[in-house]
From TrEMBL:
<keyword id="KW-0732">Signal</keyword>
<protein>
    <recommendedName>
        <fullName>Sulfotransferase domain-containing protein</fullName>
    </recommendedName>
</protein>
<dbReference type="InterPro" id="IPR027417">
    <property type="entry name" value="P-loop_NTPase"/>
</dbReference>
<feature type="region of interest" description="Disordered">
    <location>
        <begin position="255"/>
        <end position="275"/>
    </location>
</feature>
<feature type="signal peptide">
    <location>
        <begin position="1"/>
        <end position="24"/>
    </location>
</feature>
Length: 303
């Protein structure tokens, strides 16, 4: 049994006994504990009660995501990490996005958050002040800004997110050709890309920049970014064993390992991306200039 699971047992047992609760996938009937085991467990429970705080009792954790720079990936990674450490969805873990589509914003006071399309240097300043001495730990994926608009065009052009009234109002992108669609997405996504660039061009010391391209290109790349992330988030707040478990838990978000986990088909056809990319130089020059500047500030070659 893993250490994380082992730590949960006494609590499950108590819940089962006193509340006849069925917690997670473990029912009371499945586990017939003897007195000696109970004694052992109450001592573990005592240790547990006096054990160090959970990481989210120490810091606030903020995963930030930007449209077409791995939003779904970020949500999956964040949930996997904190779930593996025992955080409770909706209680310890919240989410907010902009606009706030139905069902996508909840638990704004939870210490672990995912913020989508809203984090900017100005918001960072406020969040830092609100966090006070506990401090924030912020992480997010950065992707080549031109790849983001190419991806947005291919994604919405094939009818994805008809409810998205910013990047695909009334499904309008389905009717657009590549140049028109690219230009449309580049305009619509300016605030998103601008805010991503502002946060990550020179990340503050409480903020980790993750590399979208590296994370998605191979499982080795995925693991090395996750090791970096886990080290940054927790330092010595979790054990080596927990660290290994958390890394393992993140791997379900690695589509090179688990292609079937892209359940809503976020991945675009490579042909569409290659064809659309050819139209980038033909975009209105002032708009293209802004994207070239974002690329440069983030260290990407013009593409
Ligand atoms: C970008 O940042 C500005 C300034 O904080 C904020 O008003 C805006 O809502 C943000 N937009 C997105 C899409 O991140
Ligand atoms: C970041 O730098 C500030 C000021 O130098 C310091 O007080 C703070 O502890 C640092 N935070 C982290 C997470 O290293
Ligand atoms: C790693 O995670 C998978 C589920 O994604 C689980 O089946 C497996 O038992 C885990 N391995 C370890 C060593 O924890
Ligand atoms: C996802 O969408 C792409 C682009 O339309 C398509 O090529 C691919 O077959 C789809 N994959 C699945 C699993 O539906």
């Amino acid at each position: 049994m893993s250490m994380l699971r082992a730590k949960c047992w006494p609590l499950l047992w108590l819940l089962c006994t006193y509340a006849s609760a069925v917690v997670a996938d473990v029912s009371c009937e499945e586990h017939d504990f003897h007195a000696t085991q109970f004694l052992q467990m109450t001592s573990i429970l005592n240790a547990e009660l006096h054990s160090p705080l959970k990481p989210w009792d120490v810091h606030y954790y903020l995963g930030v995501a930007y449209h077409k720079a791995g939003t779904y990936l970020m949500i999956q990674v964040w949930q996997s990490i904190f779930h593996a450490l025992g955080a409770k969805p909706l209680i310890d873990m919240g989410q907010w996005d902009q606009p706030c589509y139905p069902g996508t914003c909840y638990a704004p006071d939870a210490p672990i958050q995912v913020w989508i399309d809203l984090y900017s240097p100005a918001k960072a300043q406020k969040a830092r002040e609100a966090a006070g001495e506990r401090g924030l730990r912020v992480a997010g994926f950065v992707r080549d800004p031109v790849s983001m608009i190419v991806s947005a065009y291919c994604y919405h052009h094939r009818g994805k997110e008809l409810w998205n009234f910013v990047e695909n109002p009334q499904g309008i992108v389905a009717q657009m050709g590549p140049l028109e669609g690219l230009t449309f997405e580049a305009q619509r996504m300016l605030p998103v890309v601008k805010n991503m660039t502002g946060i990550f061009e020179h990340p503050a010391n409480d903020t980790l920049r993750l590399d979208y391209e590296r994370t998605t290109a191979s499982s080795d790349g995925f693991d090395s970014e996750m090791v970096k992330l886990i080290g940054f988030l927790f330092e010595d707040l979790i054990s080596a064993e927990e660290r290994a478990e958390v890394l393992n838990a993140t791997q379900r978000a690695d589509l090179n390992r688990h292609p079937a986990n892209d359940d809503d088909n976020h991945s675009n056809d490579p042909d569409c991306k290659a064809r659309t990319r050819e139209y980038v130089p033909a975009m209105p020059s002032d708009l293209l200039g802004q994207y070239r500047s974002f690329q440069q500030r983030l260290g990407y070659a013009p593409s």
